[in-house]
Give the backbone structure.
Amino acid sequence: MSLKSLSPYLLLLAAGGAFLVYYNGGVPGIWKDDQPISSLTSADRELVSTVADTRLGTQQAATRRTGSDGPQVDESAIYYYAAQRDWVRMRAEIERLRALYPNWVPPENPELGQSSIDPELQQFWALFSEGNYPAVRDAIAKRQQSDPDWTPPAELTSKLAEAEARLRLVNAGKAEQWATVLRVANENAGLLTCANVEALWTVAEAFVKTDEAARGLDVYKYVLDNCTNEEERVGTIEKAVGILPIAEAEQLVASNTGEAYDNARDTLVRRRVGEAAQDSSKTASATDLARMEQIVSASDVTADDAMLLAFYLYTHGDPTRAAQMFRIALDKNGGAKAGEGYVLAMHALERFLEAEPVAYEWRDSNADSMKAYLDLMTAALSKQPPLEISEAVIQRFVPVVVQQQSSFGGQALGWYAYNTGQIENAERWFIQALKWDRDSEPSAYGLAIARQRLKNTRGFAAVVNAWRSRSDRIDDLARGINLHAPRPTDSGGGVAQRQEKPVSVITDDDRELFGAAPTANGSIARSRGRDNAQVIPASSSAPAGQPAAAARRAGSRCSSASSLNDLQRLSASAAMSLGWCLMDLERPLEAARAFDAAMERSTTAKARGEAAYGKSYAYLRAGLTSKATVAASNAQVSTARQRELRIALLTQQAGAAYAAGRYADAIFSLDARSQLAPEQTDLMMLRAWAYVNLGRLDEAERIFKLVQRTGGSRDAATGLSVIHERRGLNKY
Amino acid sequence: MRYSFSTGSKQTRAAIALAIAFAAALLCFMTISSSAAVAQPAARIQSGANALISPDEWQQYRSRFITSGRVVDDANGNISHSESQGYGMLLAVLANDPATFDALWSFVRTDLLIRDDGLVAWRWDPKSQPHVTDVNNASDGDILIAYALLLGADKWGRPELAASARKIISALAQHSVSQIGGQPMLMPGVEGFGPGTRNDAPVVNPSYWIFEALPLFSKVDNGKDVWNQLTKSGLDLIDESRFGPAGIPPEWVSLRDPARPMLADGFPEEYGYNALRIPLYLLRAGIDDRKRLERFRAMWTRNGRPAAGIIDVATGRSTHMLKDPGYEIIAAALSCALDGTPIPDNLKQFSPTLYYPSTLHLLGLSLVRERYPQCL
């Protein structure tokens, strides 16, 4: 072992001098001071002896003369290291002193301690070795006060100053105060030795963080060229490849061998692939990708590695494999990040419903996961033609949309409701979406379309007045140029667009969203102009069996949110009233909850039946026909009520089937319904339009004429003209 | 050998006297009534024999609150901060204890004096890693530390302490002082109080002006005028910040409109633990103008007797009384300064309670001993 590698002090002096020169703009690469002491320049030698001399001035303890009249040699550090059993540093100190004082003879058994050594001074060193530098300062000053002639050994004060500087430097690094790090390093160049690798690492990082990567590289190289502690060397390589810019890190690893460097090369592969993953315009090299594939195919692949490759694949056009990789990451406990990535990849693949469980599971982990879930469901609900989405999936999406006040989510639910023929529900969701985002043009457009179909002329006008200046397509709607067909594709050859029974209502929502109520005429009147080539059928999705329900509508106001919070405390009859009140507010899902509570608490079979009726009616209104059926069959709903519900159900099914373009189904439902109750005009019209769309023009004509005779309707006339057009026999 | 700030050991006292005369002239020039008497600032050079804090008091304080160079705020999760370190260093000078001073200063250097701009990180938490959880500074802490360093340098003849003080002082002038409404103002911290950081910015805290330090800063900071101007801006701020029926100077003041100081948002609207130091700092700096002091005494008088308490700005009344002698001595010192009322015996005895009031207690005792020995 060379003298050099033993002696932190030589490193200290040489590197210290070098650093000063270097930092002051000297020759780069001067860190390499691994020349033996004999090759030091005369200036270096001078520095060594100067520093040594300053140490010699004042020591009182642990000093011996080298000869009868030689200089006193401060041996306290030797005893200190011996007491610490730090043999490496002890030998280094002996070598250092031997180099300085050729005539000096080292103590024979320093580990036995020195009887003459100052016991108080030993205490100082003990405090020092504990790292309690304030206590050392305290002790030194106290002794100086009590013994004015006493001067602390230079060895102690210089080591103390150095230790404080090292601590300050490292603390400044932890606080990312890089200028301080470099300043302290510059002022305490003696710090920068292998004995203080952490300080060297901090300085290197400070250089990198202050755009001096080349100097940072030099510091890391210095450690690797000069320091022998294997653990610290490995640590240095790890730090360097993590902190240096890629180019400098590559320089450091280049042409080096060994496990640590192999690991470092893998780190660089990860960094390069990771960088490319952030930026789809960058491509990772084939070699890097091959290596990443190797890494992730190992059985002990980490979630991080799988995710890294997955993100790269995702941003580089391979969502299929990305999804597989994210799945692996998920299985390796990759957590929310892996979940989010998986959802994004599956979203890109339009495999919405497959990904929904994962998206739902991780939604609350962080904002990104929530967004991924909302986006996924929004896309699923907006898909054309509509996907078959299970009720459970929608049911658990709704509260999340409400809780997140997601305008996009509300809008998507609106379109889904619209596309599945639940126009009133659609209207409600579009209103909600607009409340969450007053500037959401798509929500306003959806609302306008829904109201147009509901024939809610005043409501339609309210949207139009507020939005036509901001939205061309809403303006087009108002002027009757319905070029952008509403979202549902009319599978019946574009003939039919159903319009609901007119309900001209200005609600509180309208006043809140659109201000003062518009007049009922105005823009809307024009939408019925002769140039309107559209066929406007009429029908109703409003359940025909409503009278019983209508009778219950007390018209009273209720605030759903607060009342629902108190649901647990409500009596059966109060819950019942709340249910009907919520129905009035068109909040059927909340109403269903209230009816549910009423059912639970009702003591008589009749009351339970009433509540069950309400609940099933509420589900019906929410478009949840299967739930409605379940609710109706579960309780002792009276026969009359059963019949009422069945009628309502069939009415709704007919409307939904028609809206979805399933005209034969619509006829089937209407036929079934006619067994229970007479068909009123709006349903006759629905049947007629279904016949038109099925090409059964004779049957359609018969109904239109019947309607015309029994009171007439412009829609019936329109229907007849359409039939004549179809037959090429336009009589008008 | 004795260190002097600039002109050598023989002239030190004369130089300080000059600085004081300058400060006095400045104060007379300002809005204070002509009777303003600016005596020699507290904490001047004391020989070890008659330290302003007795060895016994200091021993009690140290053993209770100082560990490994750290002044522990025991009412606040045992954290330390630049303020506690600065108070500790100042008290160590007043107690003539260079050993403890060195320990405290060592801790400041290794753990807090790490900011790139040369100021002191304000908060150190033993329970977190890294310990500095917020690298922002607190300018009163910076001032206290620099002030203690200057006094220590002078008292013990250690120029290296003054050199360190000068660095902090010039960093303060550069980074933590802003021109607001044509006057320099002491920003509470480099981050978080200036324009753009909050709606009611700039926001300042009148109790961050440690007036006794400012003439010394002016002297060592190449005679920069900003430190003397800060004395004026601080006194103006205190005089003009009057809120509620009792005309209370609050803790945190918005100077969005410099001509109309407002209560800053989001802070308790009270004369509280921050602001109650203002009269102590005024007295310690020898700014003992009667009219100004009477305002503070009135706030802390109940039934004709001194009564320390937290005062609600809206009502002008105490929300609760402060019974610790560390607070009571401020009320007592005001009565002493204004009417020569003797300090009650129970306040002359120091017995540590919690870090903050105990610190104020020793500062108050040293103030009375130096300036108003007749009240003892």
Remarks:
- Residues 144 and 228 of chain B are 17 Å apart (CA to CA).
- Residues 12-29 of chain B form the longest helix (18 residues).
- Chain B touches chain A at residues 68-70, 98-107, 109-111, 113-116, 121, 130-132, 135 (CB under 8 Å).
